[in-house]
Amino acid sequence: MKIFKKIKEYVPTPALIIYCIFFFALAVSLISRISTPFADFWNENIGSVLRLILAYLTTLLPFSLAEYLLLCLPVIAVSLVVYAFRHTVDSTKKTVRFIAGMISSAALIFSILFTNLTPGYFATPVDEKLGLEKLPVSKEELYETSLYLLENANEASKEVDFIYNSFSVMPYTLSELSEKINGSYDGICRLYDFIQNMSVSVKPVALSEPWTYTHIAGVYTFFTGEANININFPDFTLPFTVAHEMAHQRGISREDEANFIAFLVCINSSDPYIRYSGYISVYEYTASALYSSDKETYFEVLKNMSPEIRSELIAYNKFFEKYKENVAEEIVGGINDAYLQQQGQSAGIKSYDLVTDLAVAYYKKYIK
Predict the structure, then answer these.
(1) Which of 156-160, 311-315, 344-348 bottoms out in mean pLDDT, i.e. has the lowest?
(2) Res 347 pLDDT > 90
(3) Which of 73, 91, 105, 119 yields a CA-CA distance of 20 to 30 A from 285?
């Protein structure tokens, strides 16, 4: 008891509670890494409740709380330094209590990560849950899958409006898109009960233009439960990006799997623009893999691309020239790569590209 009283003298009670939560969350994370059944149980039964609470709380805000907190960091940091200088320098005990409180803030963020998102990285892979056979992909399979995706993108594009020799135009707002993607998730969740169902809005990022230099189209901020969308990206990327970040909200942590669930959500939508976005987005992944495997076969597929889609992709390349190589992309890319590897995704940021394997497996089972 004396030791406990001594600790309470130097560590604020709220911080002590947070430290207890942190060690529990750390245990959840460690057990998830060694036990897939536990990771499945936690992700689908406990983590789902925590994610739902966060998502519903923050969806009430008309702005991105994560972006607001990030922008306020300099002010918060300066305020804390000023407070520490004025109120703690005269007492060792006060200084220790202040530092313990600050560390507990970081511990709380990691606790949310360990309980809301980490178990999903170590849960049963989506291909097993869907009964797909994910095997090494051949050149022929890449060709057939890319052709299938492109033909469907061509078909959907017939109902899409394009600016002459340029981008397609999304015929509704981001808020309306959010509602449509939520509606499509309703159907997917009825088919696959491992995907958590909820109805929440995505958040447009106010500083989307400078954010584009990081090459990030969207991000799920686990500590606020928000799906944040870069609205500076061309319209045709938005439905797929929204569906991808919503997949993370629903417990699909791995990037390739979030891409694939986004694909299923998009192509099963009743809206032609959303279907178009789903097909063309995954086509870009499979076509890139085909180009690396066999350039001649890649150009055979490319011959089937409609003039409108060709113009859109050319316009996209021109749009991205401004943001291609910069320090922000290198720093953020390196951080994201390290984070994903820490979460068991050995391919790091290249794990996004692994959706190709899932797309081919899906084509072989359901289309071919």
Answers:
(1) 344-348
(2) no
(3) 119
Whether 79 has a pLDDT exceeding 60, the answer reads yes
Question: Token pair of 221, please?
Answer: 């901020």
Handedness of CA 268, 272, 274, 280 (dihedral sign): positive
What does the block give as tokens for 53? 């609470």
Q: Tokens representing 131?
A: 């009964």
Cα–Cα distance for residue pair 271/225, rounded to 1 Å: 26
Question: Which residue is associated with the tokens 């979030």?
Answer: 258
Residues in the chain: 368
Task: Report d(CA 210, CA 232) in Å as an integer.
Answer: 9
pLDDT tens, residue by residue, 13-72: 888 989 999 999 999 999 999 999 999 999 999 999 999 999 999 998 989 999 999 999
Q: Which residues contact 94 (CB under 8 A, 6 or more apart)?
A: 87, 88
Confirm if 217 and 237 have CB atoms less than 8 A apart. Answer: yes
Query: Beta strand 203-204 with 226-229: parallel, antiparallel or unpaired?
Result: parallel
pLDDT digits (tens, 9 = 90+) for 92-131: 777 777 888 888 999 999 999 999 999 999 999 999 999 9
Beta-sheet strand order (sheet of 218-221)? 203-204, 226-229, 218-221
Angle (CA) 209-249-27 rounded to 5° is 120
